[in-house]
Each structure stands twice: as C-alpha cells, then as structure tokens.
Write a structure and sequence with these properties.
By secondary structure, the protein is α/β, with parallel strands linked by helices. It contains 19 helices and 16 strands.
Length: 456
C-alpha cells in the first residue's frame, strides 16, 4: 500500500515524539515533529500538513487544555482544510469533546493504541486530501447556502403539541405576527423556522436576530442599518436586519430583553412599516412578517412597566406556548435518534441508535434544560461512545426511580442527590470505578474522594 498524507505532530514530550518518529513514517508519506506550538504557523506555510496531531497542554504545571483549544482555532483560521486530531490525557476528555465541537476531527487518549492512532490519522488524512481535491476552501461548493432551509420541525403526538401544530398550519400562510413563549431550550427558534418554511415567504431566508445579545449602542445600527460616517466606526453603509428581511420573515429571539427605551423605536418601525438608517433621513419601506420569542412573562413585565403594552399587542397577534420537554416525553427518543444521526455523521462515529437501557434513562430524566440539554448530551455521548449503540453509561445523568414523587426529590439536599447518584452508578457498573467516573463525568481522584466522603 502506498503511503499518503502529511502528518505534523506537535507535542513537547520528547519520548512521545521519538516513538511517533518511528511509528508514523511506516504509514504516511511525510511526518514532521515539533516540540513547541509556536512553530505551527511556519509549518502550515512550508510543510502544509494534511493532519496535525496536537497536544492539549504545553506549559509546565498547566493542564487546562486551553492552549490546545487556542492553537486549534489558529490552525482552522489559517488553514481550514487541515484536519486536527487532539492528543489528550484521560482526565481532559471533556476538553477534547469541546475541541471537536470547535472543529477538531477526533481525539486520541494517552497512552494510545497504535492501531487506533493510525486508523484515526488515516481517516483524517483521507478527509483532508478529499476536501483539497474538491477545492475545499471557505465558501466552496460544500458550504450551506444562505437561503438553504434548515431541518423541519419534529412534531410530537401529545395533545399540547398537536394543538400547536394545528394552529401553526392555520397561521403559517398568513402574515400575522407570532409570539412564541416557553422555557429555554424548548425549540422556539425551530418552531419559528417551521412557520416561515410553511409560509408564502418560505422561498427567502428567514433573518434571525438575538435581541438579547445586541448591545444598546449597536441596537439601532444592527436592526435599522446605518450610513457611512453616521458614527466613528461607520466606515461603510450597513443594511440592517429589518431591511435584509424585506419580503421575508424577521425572527426576534429574546425580545423580552430589549430595554424599554429601545422598545419605542422598534414599535415605531413596526407601525410605520418603514425604517430609517442611523445617520440618514430617508425612510425605506419594508414588508416583513414578524415572529418573536421569549422565555419571559411579558404580561407580567407589562404590569411592572418594563415592557411596553402597545408593543406587546403589536407582536402578539398569535400566541404559541411551547411546553417543556418533560411534558413531551413522546418526543425524547425520536429527538435523540435525530441528534445521533446528525452527530454520528458530523464526527464520523459508527453510532446508529440507543440500547433499551439508554432509552429508559433518557425517558426518566427531567431535562430541565429541555431539548438543548438533550442535544448536548447526545452530542457528547456520540463523541465518547465506543460501540454502535449508545448505552445508559454513555450519559452523565442521575438514575431516576420510576414513580418517584417530585416533592420528595425536590426536598433532597444537593449532597443527598449526589450520594444517591453515585450509589446508583456504583450499582449499575458493579463497582467498576473507571466506568462510574466516566458516567458521572468526573475524574477517578474526585470519585475516590466522594466515595470516602459518603462512606461508599
């Protein structure tokens, strides 16, 4: 077999570099080894590696992994077609997972198995070579187009979600303003996208604005736009989100976070159906369908005087309340399978589904963080899983007792909950401390301390 692919190893441990200097040339066309990440930029230019095997920590007495994440970002910015495999200790697996979310191809735990190391580097090399062959640069054919539709809504069969679905089917073809409320993580943005997709405006991209993330000083500029010279950093004209959404849908997320004095400016634009850029005097007509979302009680805010009553009625023609995930248990497993498919493809993992034990664990959990918590849990489990099915031990969730009364559980102290969770994990894994620590997402030393504390 012809060796192919160029591998760059960045690790400050001379023993590791010496071992890899012997091992890797047997499988790859070219191998370069660096003791310091400070030489990465030069190597990217001169050696142009297909894959970088990157240690997570370099400074003595430092094991935060932040250096690895920093250099991962640097590599991806300067040479996005190069794949990065993170080299990490077992205790730093959580950081490696974060690294994969930021664009790393995979991670290898020290001490490593030669077969797994070679297979991972070869897979990363094949992907890099294939992408380069397609002209894999930013903005290439493989990128999602701006107006490309996202995934459609996954509807549950419960009474509450069935009622929401029927309402959506009725209002989607109209231009009625919609206010979506519900706890954080319930999928308000996905529901907004579904309403837009089903509307006559669905051929154009929906314009999304996180109103709570815009600073007060930039609010008018981001929403309404500005002209060159309107303020110090206004070097060019800027088209605001409202003008960008002309003929389409504007989704204002976290509208309850907009300060009171800025609510008046937003209301004026909605009433006049025209927008004036900052620094300009011309009024630009706009035709938008408005969908807003919040996890706050706007009616209570109106009573308290922190949200304008006239704006509330302007955005609240149709009100949709999304129930929390704990009230939509029929959706938990289908959503989990959807996320498994998504992340198995993204992280090239062979995971295809859930075991019966995993399903029971997912259904028993309360999911206080709703769909977002479930999604993050599945993503992490897919990354860390060893088999083709996710099992109960792949989730860092407390073991719930079917039928357990919520008031009794709520009355427990944090220490009591922690002790019960550890004891349940010890029972589940037959006292195997490695599996227990992994399932609880803590290190073995931390587990030892907890076992001693609770006399387990």
């Amino acid at each position: 077999m012809v060796n192919k692919g160029k591998i760059l190893v960045v690790d400050d441990n001379p023993g590791i570099r010496a071992a890899l200097k012997i091992l890797l040339p047997k499988y790859f066309a070219a191998v370069e080894l660096l003791a310091s990440p400070k030489e990465i930029h030069a190597s990217l230019r001169e050696f142009a590696p297909d894959v970088i095997l990157l240690d997570m920590n370099f400074e003595a007495d430092t094991n935060t992994g932040n250096e690895g994440l920093f250099w991962l970002s640097e590599i991806k910015q300067r040479r996005p077609q190069t794949e990065v495999v993170l080299f990490t200790a077992y205790a730093d697996i959580a950081l490696a997972v974060e690294g994969m979310k930021r664009g790393a191809f995979d991670f290898i735990v020290k001490p490593w198995e030669n077969e797994k190391l070679i297979a991972t580097l070869q897979a990363a090399s094949d992907k890099a070579v294939a992408n380069n062959g397609k002209g894999g640069k930013a903005g290439g054919k493989g990128q999602k187009k701006t107006g490309e539709a996202g995934p459609s809504m996954l509807w549950g069969t419960g009474a509450a979600m069935t009622a929401v679905r029927r309402t959506v089917e009725k209002i989607a073809p109209t231009d009625a303003s919609v206010l979506i409320t519900g706890e954080n993580g319930t999928g308000k943005d996905v529901l907004a996208a579904e309403i837009h997709r089903l509307s006559d405006r669905g051929q154009k991209p929906m314009v999304c604005v996180d109103a709570g993330a815009i600073t007060e000083t930039l609010f008018e500029s981001e929403l309404f736009g500005h002209v060159k010279g309107a303020f110090t950093d206004a070097h060019t004209d800027h088209t605001g989100k409202m003008e960008q959404a002309n003929g389409s849908t504007l989704f204002l997320d976290e509208i309850g976070n907009i300060p009171l004095h800025l609510q008046a400016k937003l209301l004026r634009v909605l009433q006049n159906r025209s927008v004036t850029k900052v620094g300009d005097t011309r009024s630009i007509p706009i035709d938008i369908r408005l969908i807003c979302a919040t996890n706050k009680n706007l009616e209570e805010m109106v009573k308290q005087g922190t949200f304008r009553e006239d704006l509330y009625y302007r955005i609240n023609t149709i009100h949709l309340e999304l129930p929390p995930l704990r009230e939509r248990s029929d959706e938990i497993v289908p959503l989990a399978n959807l996320f498994i498919s998504r992340y198995a493809a993204k992280y090239h993992r062979p995971v295809t589904g859930l075991t019966d034990a995993a399903r029971q664990v997912l259904l028993a959990n309360r999911w206080s963080g709703n769909i977002r918590e479930l999604q993050n849990g599945i993503e992490k489990a897919v990354i860390l899983a060893d088999g083709d099915k996710l099992d109960a031990e792949d989730f860092s969730l407390p073991l719930s007792v079917p039928g357990e009364a919520e008031p009794a559980a709520a009355a427990e102290t944090l220490e009591e909950v922690e002790e019960r969770t550890i004891r349940a994990a010890m029972d589940r894994f037959g006292g195997n401390l490695t599996h227990v620590a992994k399932s609880l997402n803590i290190s073995r030393p931390t587990l030892y301390a907890k076992l001693k504390k609770y006399n387990i």
